[in-house]
Amino acid sequence: MSDPEADPTPAATTERETLDREHKAREAAEQAALPYSWTQTIADADISIPVPATIKGRDLEVVLRKGGIKVAMKGGKGEVWVEGDFPHPIHTDESTWTLETTSKPPGKEISIHLDKVNKMEWWPHIVTSAPKIDVSKITPESSKLGDLDGETRSMVEKMMYDQRQKELGKPTSEEEKKMEMLRKFQEQHPEMDFSNVKMG
Protein backbone atom coordinates (compact mmCIF):
# COMPACT_ATOMS: atom_id res chain seq x y z
CA MET A 1 0.00 0.00 0.00
CA SER A 2 1.40 3.39 -0.86
CA ASP A 3 1.94 5.87 1.93
CA PRO A 4 0.04 9.14 1.29
CA GLU A 5 2.57 10.92 3.50
CA ALA A 6 5.45 9.78 1.27
CA ASP A 7 7.98 12.38 0.22
CA PRO A 8 6.55 14.30 -2.78
CA THR A 9 9.95 15.31 -4.14
CA PRO A 10 9.90 13.18 -7.33
CA ALA A 11 6.93 15.21 -8.67
CA ALA A 12 8.55 18.47 -7.57
CA THR A 13 11.78 17.44 -9.25
CA THR A 14 9.99 16.66 -12.51
CA GLU A 15 8.21 20.00 -12.39
CA ARG A 16 11.50 21.82 -11.75
CA GLU A 17 13.16 19.94 -14.62
CA THR A 18 10.28 20.92 -16.93
CA LEU A 19 10.57 24.57 -15.87
CA ASP A 20 14.34 24.38 -16.33
CA ARG A 21 13.89 22.96 -19.82
CA GLU A 22 11.34 25.63 -20.74
CA HIS A 23 13.61 28.34 -19.37
CA LYS A 24 16.56 26.92 -21.31
CA ALA A 25 14.52 26.75 -24.52
CA ARG A 26 13.31 30.35 -24.09
CA GLU A 27 16.86 31.48 -23.35
CA ALA A 28 18.19 29.63 -26.43
CA ALA A 29 15.49 31.23 -28.62
CA GLU A 30 16.32 34.72 -27.31
CA GLN A 31 20.04 34.19 -27.93
CA ALA A 32 19.40 32.70 -31.41
CA ALA A 33 17.44 35.82 -32.37
CA LEU A 34 20.52 38.02 -31.82
CA PRO A 35 22.54 39.01 -34.92
CA TYR A 36 25.62 37.40 -33.31
CA SER A 37 26.48 34.33 -31.27
CA TRP A 38 28.77 34.34 -28.25
CA THR A 39 30.56 32.04 -25.89
CA GLN A 40 32.54 32.67 -22.74
CA THR A 41 34.92 31.20 -20.23
CA ILE A 42 35.34 32.65 -16.75
CA ALA A 43 38.21 34.78 -18.17
CA ASP A 44 37.04 35.94 -21.61
CA ALA A 45 34.19 36.15 -24.08
CA ASP A 46 34.06 35.57 -27.86
CA ILE A 47 31.54 36.95 -30.32
CA SER A 48 30.92 35.70 -33.88
CA ILE A 49 28.94 37.84 -36.31
CA PRO A 50 28.09 36.29 -39.70
CA VAL A 51 28.33 38.93 -42.48
CA PRO A 52 28.02 38.90 -46.29
CA ALA A 53 31.10 37.70 -48.21
CA THR A 54 31.32 41.09 -50.00
CA ILE A 55 32.21 42.94 -46.78
CA LYS A 56 35.84 44.01 -46.30
CA GLY A 57 37.58 45.03 -43.10
CA ARG A 58 37.69 48.67 -44.19
CA ASP A 59 33.87 48.69 -44.51
CA LEU A 60 33.52 48.04 -40.81
CA GLU A 61 33.46 50.20 -37.73
CA VAL A 62 34.54 48.06 -34.77
CA VAL A 63 34.94 49.96 -31.50
CA LEU A 64 36.03 48.10 -28.36
CA ARG A 65 35.98 50.31 -25.28
CA LYS A 66 36.65 49.29 -21.69
CA GLY A 67 32.92 49.52 -20.98
CA GLY A 68 31.24 48.89 -24.32
CA ILE A 69 31.25 47.86 -27.97
CA LYS A 70 30.01 48.92 -31.37
CA VAL A 71 30.18 46.79 -34.52
CA ALA A 72 28.55 48.38 -37.56
CA MET A 73 28.96 49.31 -41.20
CA LYS A 74 31.11 52.43 -41.53
CA GLY A 75 29.55 55.82 -42.11
CA GLY A 76 26.28 55.04 -40.34
CA LYS A 77 24.86 53.44 -43.48
CA GLY A 78 23.42 49.99 -43.03
CA GLU A 79 23.78 47.29 -40.44
CA VAL A 80 24.60 47.73 -36.74
CA TRP A 81 25.23 44.21 -35.43
CA VAL A 82 25.99 44.97 -31.81
CA GLU A 83 26.18 48.20 -29.86
CA GLY A 84 25.94 48.90 -26.14
CA ASP A 85 27.56 48.66 -22.74
CA PHE A 86 29.28 45.55 -21.41
CA PRO A 87 27.95 44.18 -18.11
CA HIS A 88 31.55 44.32 -16.81
CA PRO A 89 34.75 46.02 -18.09
CA ILE A 90 37.31 44.49 -20.49
CA HIS A 91 41.04 44.97 -21.09
CA THR A 92 41.03 46.79 -24.43
CA ASP A 93 44.74 46.04 -25.06
CA GLU A 94 44.08 42.31 -24.85
CA SER A 95 40.83 42.34 -26.82
CA THR A 96 40.94 41.85 -30.60
CA TRP A 97 38.77 41.45 -33.69
CA THR A 98 39.28 39.84 -37.10
CA LEU A 99 37.24 39.39 -40.27
CA GLU A 100 37.46 35.79 -41.46
CA THR A 101 36.20 33.85 -44.46
CA THR A 102 34.09 30.86 -43.47
CA SER A 103 32.70 27.86 -45.32
CA LYS A 104 29.26 28.62 -43.88
CA PRO A 105 26.97 31.12 -45.60
CA PRO A 106 26.82 34.15 -45.71
CA GLY A 107 30.57 33.77 -46.28
CA LYS A 108 32.46 35.80 -43.67
CA GLU A 109 32.34 36.40 -39.98
CA ILE A 110 33.61 39.05 -37.62
CA SER A 111 35.33 37.34 -34.68
CA ILE A 112 35.76 39.40 -31.55
CA HIS A 113 37.74 38.30 -28.52
CA LEU A 114 37.06 40.16 -25.25
CA ASP A 115 39.44 39.86 -22.31
CA LYS A 116 37.50 40.29 -19.06
CA VAL A 117 39.01 42.50 -16.35
CA ASN A 118 37.42 40.36 -13.64
CA LYS A 119 38.35 36.75 -14.37
CA MET A 120 36.01 35.51 -11.67
CA GLU A 121 32.56 36.23 -13.04
CA TRP A 122 30.26 34.99 -15.77
CA TRP A 123 28.57 37.54 -18.02
CA PRO A 124 24.78 37.30 -18.32
CA HIS A 125 24.96 38.98 -21.76
CA ILE A 126 27.45 40.75 -24.06
CA VAL A 127 25.65 44.11 -23.91
CA THR A 128 23.28 45.16 -21.16
CA SER A 129 20.44 45.77 -23.63
CA ALA A 130 20.47 42.11 -24.81
CA PRO A 131 18.47 39.29 -23.17
CA LYS A 132 20.23 37.70 -20.20
CA ILE A 133 21.30 34.10 -19.78
CA ASP A 134 21.01 32.45 -16.38
CA VAL A 135 24.61 32.44 -15.15
CA SER A 136 23.71 30.18 -12.21
CA LYS A 137 23.15 27.36 -14.73
CA ILE A 138 26.66 27.62 -16.20
CA THR A 139 28.79 24.61 -15.45
CA PRO A 140 32.38 25.39 -16.39
CA GLU A 141 34.12 22.90 -18.61
CA SER A 142 36.34 20.97 -16.26
CA SER A 143 39.26 21.40 -18.67
CA LYS A 144 39.01 25.18 -18.24
CA LEU A 145 38.89 24.84 -14.47
CA GLY A 146 41.76 22.39 -14.79
CA ASP A 147 43.86 25.15 -16.38
CA LEU A 148 43.75 27.10 -13.13
CA ASP A 149 46.17 26.44 -10.32
CA GLY A 150 44.77 24.60 -7.30
CA GLU A 151 44.13 27.66 -5.15
CA THR A 152 42.38 29.68 -7.88
CA ARG A 153 40.40 26.65 -8.94
CA SER A 154 39.06 25.97 -5.46
CA MET A 155 38.25 29.69 -5.15
CA VAL A 156 36.27 29.62 -8.42
CA GLU A 157 34.50 26.42 -7.41
CA LYS A 158 33.63 27.91 -4.00
CA MET A 159 32.35 31.13 -5.62
CA MET A 160 30.21 29.17 -8.04
CA TYR A 161 28.89 26.96 -5.25
CA ASP A 162 28.05 30.03 -3.15
CA GLN A 163 26.40 31.69 -6.15
CA ARG A 164 24.23 28.61 -6.73
CA GLN A 165 23.36 28.35 -3.02
CA LYS A 166 22.35 32.04 -3.00
CA GLU A 167 20.12 31.53 -6.04
CA LEU A 168 18.44 28.64 -4.22
CA GLY A 169 18.18 30.62 -0.99
CA LYS A 170 20.47 28.12 0.77
CA PRO A 171 23.45 28.83 3.04
CA THR A 172 26.82 29.55 1.41
CA SER A 173 29.84 27.38 2.20
CA GLU A 174 30.98 29.90 4.89
CA GLU A 175 27.56 29.82 6.56
CA GLU A 176 27.50 26.02 6.33
CA LYS A 177 30.92 25.90 8.03
CA LYS A 178 29.69 28.20 10.82
CA MET A 179 26.55 26.11 11.28
CA GLU A 180 28.62 22.93 11.41
CA MET A 181 30.98 24.48 14.01
CA LEU A 182 28.00 25.64 16.07
CA ARG A 183 26.42 22.19 15.85
CA LYS A 184 29.66 20.52 17.07
CA PHE A 185 29.95 23.10 19.87
CA GLN A 186 26.33 22.43 20.89
CA GLU A 187 27.06 18.70 21.05
CA GLN A 188 30.06 19.34 23.30
CA HIS A 189 28.13 21.77 25.54
CA PRO A 190 24.62 20.36 25.91
CA GLU A 191 24.14 22.40 29.11
CA MET A 192 24.18 25.74 27.16
CA ASP A 193 21.05 27.23 25.59
CA PHE A 194 21.61 28.07 21.91
CA SER A 195 18.04 28.87 21.01
CA ASN A 196 18.73 32.61 20.66
CA VAL A 197 21.91 32.32 18.62
CA LYS A 198 21.62 34.12 15.30
CA MET A 199 23.62 32.90 12.34
CA GLY A 200 25.10 35.35 9.86
TrEMBL record:
The entry's keywords: Cytoplasm
GO process annotations (BP): protein folding
A Pfam family the protein falls into: CS
CDD domains: p23_NUDC_like (cd06467)
Positions of the UniProt region annotated as Disordered: 1-32
Amino acid composition bias (Basic and acidic residues), ranges on this chain: 14-29
Primary location: cytoplasm
Gene Ontology molecular function: unfolded protein binding
Domain CS: 31-127
Gene Ontology cellular component list: cytoplasm
InterPro entries, sorted: CS_dom (IPR007052), HSP20-like_chaperone (IPR008978), NudC_fam (IPR037898)
Entry function: Required for nuclear movement. May interact between microtubules and nuclei and/or may be involved in the generation of force used to move nuclei during interphase.
Full protein name: Nuclear movement protein nudC
Source organism per UniProt: Polytolypa hystricis (strain UAMH7299)
